[in-house]
Amino acid sequence: QVQLVESGGGLVQAGGSLRLSCAASGRTFARYPMAWFRQAPGKEREFVAAINWTGGKTTYANSLNGRFTISRDNAKNTVYLQMNVLKPEDTAVYYCAQGSTAYGIIQTASTSYAYWGQGTQVTVSS
Question: What is the average pLDDT value for the chain, to the nearest integer?
Answer without folding.
Answer: 97
